[in-house]
TrEMBL record:
Gene source species: Quillaja saponaria
Residues passing through the membrane, by range: 35-55
Pfam families, per database record: DUF604
Basic and acidic residues bias spans: 1-12
Disordered: region residues: 1-20
Stored InterPro entries: DUF604
Name used for this protein in its record: Beta-1,3-n-acetylglucosaminyltransferase radical fringe protein, putative (DUF604)
Keyword terms of this UniProt record: Membrane, Transmembrane, Transmembrane helix
């Protein structure tokens, strides 16, 4: 305002001759008074705006989050008195990790938690399985299912006997008959038709307060806390399709680079589920040649004009062998899910697959938001690099390895098709480093 006033004065002075001395004094007093009035007015407006901002609910909430963050173990703590030989590089946490949470749990695996209006009770799970594999696969579901908090069903092709301990699992539903639908893919299985209809069958149950429908396979492990954090970023009253593609370039090329792979989990908003319930049966009749369930679902969602919203915490895990390279280089994003847990080696030495997953999920529940997030430390005196993937592994390298290299996944695995070359994967990969430990 002051600059604009002076520019205006200069402009006027060029257009008119200088006034007499007396008139000039009167003009100067008038200008000085105007400037003072403008300055006082601006000051009052600024003070009013500042008071409103400080005492508004939004700012109070922001200060609350910042205060909690500064006192949390996730904040960056720089000790100026520490040895100059050891430096720490901690990657910035994603914005989604900064959401304030309230989480209490007890020993009977029951918990009560809510993130700014979205609760796990607002999520309906549709778990695809088969009657032949359910007796073994249900032990994977038991690792993450919370019977007192979560809602949803396991959808099978036939009835299975009820066994001791099944009350702690989601109830079993038998899918409706799909024999009237055409299936002409020469290498696939018609069960893809049945599984593609789980979202509409779940929606038609009319479960109250359902805001999201999450689809997955019975050999998928979920971090439910982080799932709620991720879904809380979106409006379930809009048509939203959330998930991630495959780790395999060949799989994405065959199916689609824009498709959410069902094994890693697909989240569908209530509004989109409602729209699908009206068109899905008619739509899948147009795609008899497709292979499975997730490509049929993607085809029908594409007809509605809804693109995939990618979240990096959903993992299809189209890999085989040693999963260490992927686990130790998890992206800076909340870990949400992993699929194909039977197809990879046990995560921890000396344990079988199920024992290893029990230890893995125990670490996951201890600190969900930081789970698998990486910190990198350097001991310059000893020329060492220490990489810590929280809840999973500590690696010590006998040389200095920069973060740009460490964030590239070590190829300790092969793709689902057995190929190990770097260009087979949809992410940066490198040869494994020799670790000192």
């Amino acid at each position: 305002m002051i600059m604009s006033y002076h520019h205006g004065d200069e402009k006027n002075s060029l257009q008119s001759p200088l006034p007499p001395a007396r008139t000039g004094r009167r003009y100067w007093r008038h200008s000085h008074t105007s400037t003072a009035i403008v300055a006082v007015t601006a000051l009052l407006i600024s003070i009013t705006a500042w008071v409103f901002l400080v005492f508004s609910n939004t700012t109070t909430c922001c200060f609350h989050h910042l205060r909690n963050w500064e006192g949390s173990p996730h904040s960056l703590l720089w000790d100026k008195q520490s040895s100059h030989h050891l430096s720490v590089v901690t990657p910035p946490l994603s914005h989604s990790l900064l959401i304030d949470t309230t989480h209490t749990s007890n020993q009977n695996n029951s918990s009560s938690f809510e993130w700014e209006g979205l609760s796990v009770k607002n999520i309906v799970f549709g778990i695809a399985g088969s009657s032949q594999l359910w007796r073994r696969r249900k032990e994977f579901v038991r690792l993450w299912w919370r019977p007192n908090d979560m809602r949803g069903h396991v959808w099978l092709d036939d009835h299975v006997p009820h066994e001791t301990g099944d009350d702690s699992l989601p109830p079993v539903m038998v899918s409706k008959d799909i024999s009237s639908f055409r299936y002409t893919n020469p290498i696939g299985h018609p069960s893809g038709l049945r599984i593609s209809r789980i979202v509409t069958e779940s929606f038609r149950l009319g479960i109250p307060d359902a805001r999201w429908f999450v689809l997955c396979d019975d050999d998928t492990i979920f971090d439910v806390d982080n799932l709620v954090v991720v879904l809380n970023k979106y409006d379930s009253s809009e048509m939203i399709y959330i998930g991630s593609s495959s780790e395999s370039h060949s799989a994405n090329t065959y199916f689609s680079h824009s498709m959410a792979f069902g094994g890693g989990g697909i989240a569908i908003s209530h509004r989109l589920a409602e729209a699908l319930s009206e068109i899905l049966d008619e739509c899948i009749e147009r795609y008899p040649k497709l292979y499975g369930s997730d490509d049929r679902l993607h085809a029908c969602i594409s007809e509605l004009g809804i693109p995939l919203t990618r979240e990096h915490g959903f993992h299809q895990w189209d890999i085989r062998g040693n999963a260490h390279g992927l686990l130790s280089s998890h992206p800076i994003a909340p870990f949400v899910s992993i699929h194909h847990v039977e197809a990879v080696d046990p995560f921890y030495p000396g344990l079988n697959s199920l024992e290893s997953l029990k230890l893995f999920t125990k670490a996951m529940r201890a600190d969900p938001r930081s789970f698998l997030q990486r910190s990198i430390c350097y001991d310059h005196a000893r020329h060492l690099t220490v990489s810590i993937s929280l809840g999973y592994a500590v690696q010590v390298f006998p040389n200095i390895v920069l973060p740009r290299e460490l964030e590239r996944s070590e190829r300790t695995y092969s793709a689902w098709n057995g190929i190990t070359q770097r260009d087979e994967f949809e992410f940066d990969a490198r040869d494994p480093y020799r670790s000192a430990l």
